[in-house]
Amino acid sequence: QYISEHQNPMTLVLAGKVEDDITLPDTKHIKYLGFVDEEQKNIWMSGATALVNLSPLESLSMIVLEAMYLKKPLILNRHCEVFLEYSQKVETIKLVENQKEFLQVLHSFSERKPLFSESQLQQAKEWVKNNYSWDSVMQSYQKILNQQNTRDAPI
User: Fold this and answer.
1) Percentage of residues in the chain with pLDDT exceeding 90?
2) Which strand ranges, in their side-by-side order, compose the sheet holding 51-53?
3) CB–CB of 15/36 below 8 Å?
4) CA 151 to chain centre
5) In sequence order, what DSSP letters do the residues of 44-104 get, joined into one string?
6) What CA–CA distance (Å, rounded) separates 112 from 97?
């Protein structure tokens, strides 16, 4: 539908495994890469307009965190709890719950006007850095271990 409504539609690039029961349309505007290695993933993501993840069942979603770190806007499923939580922390997420909303967001991106400011994209990157970098994760573990050690200490 999006392709038929736009004279110059963006290309949707899909990476990863596509479920067997999903048939991709045969069009030059959808490029399916299949599984890609880390280097290829980073190359494709760095050139992306946005990252789309419509999965309702995510627990952490490393790809979403990586996209935020690369200062990429996100189009995410409103019915995924972790995406709702992320959207309360950063402003660079468009949540969608149906095809109509998804097409509206795609249309906004296809107008090539920035939907988010550079400072909003930088804030999302900083949020990931402050909460999910190796150092911040290790500090969190250390804090938990210190609390546990304090509770277990003899009086």
Assistant:
1) 54
2) 51-53, 74-77, 93-96
3) yes
4) 38
5) HHHT-S-EEE--S--SS-HHHHHHHHTT--EEEETT-HHHHHHHHH-S-EEEE-SHHHHHH
6) 23
Q: What is the structure's pLDDT at 15?
A: 86
Query: Given the DSSP bridges, would you call strands 12-15 and 30-34 parallel, antiparallel or unpaired?
Result: parallel
Which amino acid is residue 102, in one-letter code? F
75 in Cβ contact with 99 (< 8 Å): no
Q: In this structure, how many other beta carbons lie within 10 angstroms of the beta carbon of residue 103?
A: 15
pLDDT value, residue 84: 96
Q: Beta-carbon neighbour count of residue 93 at 10 Å?
A: 23
The pLDDT value recorded for residue 149 is: 67
SS3 22: coil
At residue 136 the predicted structure's pLDDT band, cuts being 50, 70 and 90, is confident
pTM: 0.82
Tens-place pLDDT, residues 38-51: 999 999 999 999 99
Q: Which residues contact 109 (CB under 8 A, 6 or more apart)?
A: 10, 49, 50, 73, 75, 115
End-to-end CA distance of the chain: 69
- Planar angle of CA 28, 61, 98, nearest 5 degrees: 55
